[in-house]
Amino acid sequence: xxxxxxxxxxxxxxxxxxxxxxxxxxxxxxxxxxxxxxxxxxxxxxxxxxxxxxxxxxxxxxxxxxxxxxxxxxxxxxxxxxxxxxxxxxxxxxxxxxxxxxxxxxxxxxxxxxxxxxxxxxxxxxxxxxxxxxxxxxxxxxxxxxxxxxxxxxxxxxxxxxxxxxxxxxxxxxxxxxxxxxxxxxxxxxxxxxxxxxxxxxxxxxxxxxxxxxxxxxxxxxxxxxxxxxxxxxxxxxxxxxxxxxxxxxxxxxxxxxxx
Length: 260
Known about the structure:
Number of strands: 8
Oligomer: single chain
Radius of gyration: 27 Å
Strand order of the largest sheet: 1-2-3-6
Order of helices and strands: HHHHHHHHEEEEEEEE
Strand content: 15-25%
Number of helices: 8
C-alpha cells in the first residue's frame, strides 16, 4: 500500500468503517510505516471534533416505528426445526447424554447481526440528520488540509517561506504545541515516474523520514508524517518511488526550512 492509499483509508479506519481486508492492509501498512500515523491521528481527531459538534436529532416517528417493527419481527431464537426432539423424563437414562445444541444457527446469527448492524446504521444517520452531510464533507478533506487548519488555529502557529531555484516558493506552517507541520509549495520540479519527493525532519544532525508526497503541476500540500519538535529543520529530497530504501536521504535537499 502506498502513502496516498493509506491517507485515503485513514478516515474509514477512524470510523471503523473499513472491510476486513482493507483494515488488515491498513494495519499492516501502519506497522511498516509508523511515520504515516499522522494521517490516522488527524482523521481520528476530526471524528472526535465532529461528533461533539453535531446535535442529535430524533428520527421521524413513522421511520422509527417501521424500523423497530422490522427488528421485532426478525426471529431471535432458532427455528423449531433446529431444536432437538423433547425427551420424556422416564426415557432420559435410555436416551443417553443430551446432544449439545447451539443457541442459534450460523445463518440465523449472521442474519440477525446484519439486521442489527443495519438498524444501528440507519438510527445513526437519522440522528445526525443534515449534520451527516457536513461530516462527510469534513472527512473527505485531505489530511494535510485538516492539519493546516489546526495549525493555523493554534496559539503558537508560525510559518516561514523559502524561494526555490526554479522560481517557485515553499512555505512551512508549524505548531510546536500540536507537534505538526505542513509544507505548502508551488513550482517544484517535475520528477520521473520512478521518483518521489520525501520530507525529512533534521534534528541533532540526524534525518528522520517524515513521509513522501507528489505534486500537481508543481504544487503540493504535505503534512509531516512524524512528530515535529521546535527547532527542527524541515527538508525535502528527491528519492526513489516509495521513499529512501534505507530510511536515510540518498540525495541533497532541494529545500530546507529552519523553524528555530
